[in-house]
Amino acid sequence: MDLQTLTYIVVGASFLLYIGIAFWARAGSTGEFYAAGRGVHPVANGMATAADWMSAASFISMAGLIAFNGYGASQFLMGWTGGYVLLAMLLAPYLRKFGKFTVPEFIGDRFYSSTARIVAVICLIVCSITYVIGQMKGVGVAFSRFLEVDASTGLLIGTGIVFLYAVQGGMKGITYTQIAQYCVLILAYTVPAVFISMELTGTFLPQIGLFGDHAASGTPLLTKLDQIVTDLGFKEYTAQASNPLNMFMYTMSLMIGTAGLPHVIIRFFTVPKVSDARWSAGWALVFIAILYTTAPGVGAMARLNLMDTIQTGTVGAPDGNLQYEQRPDWFKNWETTGLLKFDDKNGDGRIQYYNDKSEAFKAKAEEFGWKGNELKVDRDIMVLANPEIAKLPNWVIALVAAGGLAAALSTAAGLLMAISSAVSHDLMKGTFTPDISEKQELMWARISMGVAIAIAAWLGLNPPGFAAQVVALAFGLAASSIFPALMMGIFSKRINSKGATLGMIAGILSTLLYIFTYKGWFFIPGTAMLPNTTANHFLGIAPEAFGAIGALINFAVAYIVSNATEEPPQEIQDLVESIRVPSGAGAAVDH
Predict the structure, then answer these.
(1) Is 378 within a domain?
(2) Which residues contact 466 (CB under 8 A, 6 or more apart)?
(3) What is the tally of structural domains in the chain?
(4) Both ends of the chain: CA-CA distance in Å?
(5) CATH number assigned to the domain comprising residue 17
(6) Tens digit of each residue's pLDDT (9 = 90 or more) over 325-337
(7) CA 156, CA 151: separation in Å to the nearest integer?
(8) Per-residue pLDDT at 336
(9) Per the count of CB atoms within 10 A, which of 401, 429, 536, 545 is most buried?
(10) pTM of the shown model
(11) What percent of the chain has pLDDT over 90?
């Protein structure tokens, strides 16, 4: 069976499964829409959390960044996994014990302020919308190649699928859909990785194959990769980061941003007890680790396969003239998407892929008659293209397509759920129209989710970077706004409403200002725009890494303002104490 037909069957079957589950588990009350009725088993919730967590950035983009940046991209592995541990240990059990539906509701009640609640909603929406753009980019990439439609059309198709099952099912439908999506995405990620590891290293586990020998040459795989990339003017694959401070801040931003992202936090509200929240966090970490320990091997092997297949040679033509080989089939397939581009600058028909920014390599390149790098690769294609590059069976390629879509759709649904609950439960029910009925609140939840999907699709048509880069911006925004408020709300009785509110505002505004300035999205008329280069960044810290600085600003403002103003009421201090008390942690506490 040809690849396109097989892909339609596999992807279509997965979509029907998701929609069927959503209609089967359709939410009939606000409790089911917001928290799945708080009846999800810890293992099932762990699997759903893993799917919610492992987005298009994890499945599609992270290994692509590792493939091209090597050691320099390890902050994604360290930040995202470390952040999940931070979330599981310091936030999830306490927030579940508090017993509310949403993060803004916790902040509003803990800081006894509707203003704090509204600011938290705004921060949540800004973070979630930014994050969902990356998911929409991933949907477009997967559709554009495997269903042979342009990225914009693919994005709109994916948007429609999310709308069908997320609006109908709410958190209840999303939870059981994400369980199915986890099974699809983890098989799609690990099966081709096993095939490719066997082919390149003779070891079926990519985690071990990464540090094994390259089968064809007998040299260590990473040594072979280092040799190939340095021969073409690129830095060593295993070279350390040039700016350790930026790498540290990037890792911290991703880590604390992870712990502050509401779409993962609300998953812990779906289990019956506080102890179940801890168990589901543990299970989620196991399910997440399967993909995250595989990603470094996938990235390195994808880069090696790319380098080995694009440097085409020459063959003799029947008339005795010399002609150049055609580009590989996989290359031509991806060229049609616009995500892989070949610009034959010297007219020889061959692909010259090298670092034309390297002064040391320029002289050698000129000797060869090369006139500049001719290949442009969108990093987001590497995981999806890797099975084709390695010439794996069509069913494996189709499975990868379904997995990439499952990863993007599962996280998109979780983010849209967080936005929907914030608008309907925190703004409408909690602030502006507290007298609305449960039916009306449910209607507002579905309307707000539909509007959020439309906005996300519109923004996803013109994303500001690779999926992982866009997602990193979202993590920075969550790190600078929501995470400090949650930490201080749980572990400090002295932080009051004024301090928390001004801290969130200062944190997110400083981060947004830095991002917009250096990304070129904002500048003062009549002045030169600051180039987005390391030399111009504050202490060399990239916009994606500034969230850690924004978090420090948030903490500092909240602490200074709180200590300069009145203490929180005694009942609030008692509430904070009760959240942290371990006794009775096995049962839910509802207020």
Answers:
(1) yes
(2) 61, 64, 65, 137, 378, 379, 380
(3) 2
(4) 58
(5) 1.20.1730.10
(6) 557 788 888 887 7
(7) 9
(8) 78
(9) 545
(10) 0.80
(11) 21
147 and 203 share a domain?
Answer: yes
Token look-up 């600003």 returns 553
Q: How far apart are CA 270 and CA 465, in angstroms?
A: 33
Q: In terms of residue numbers, what domain contains 59?
A: 3-300+390-459
Same domain, 400 and 447: yes
263 and 342 co-located in one domain: no
CA distances from 102 to 62, 403, 423, 425, 440 (A): 29, 29, 10, 8, 18
- Model pLDDT, residue 198: 93
Q: Is the pLDDT of residue 147 over 90?
A: no
Q: Which position has the token pair 């993590």?
A: 475
471 lies in some domain: no
Same domain, 57 and 152: yes
Query: Are 261 and 331 found together in one domain?
Result: no
C-beta separation of 568 from 494 below 8 A: yes
**213 and 79 within one domain:** yes
**Residue 18: C-alpha distances to residues 12, 56, 78, 171, 410 (Å):** 10, 17, 31, 13, 10
Residues 112 and 44 in one domain: yes
Q: Are 504 and 485 in contact (CB under 8 A)?
A: yes
Over 60: is that where the pLDDT of 227 sits? yes
What one-character DSSP code corresponds to residue 220?
A: B
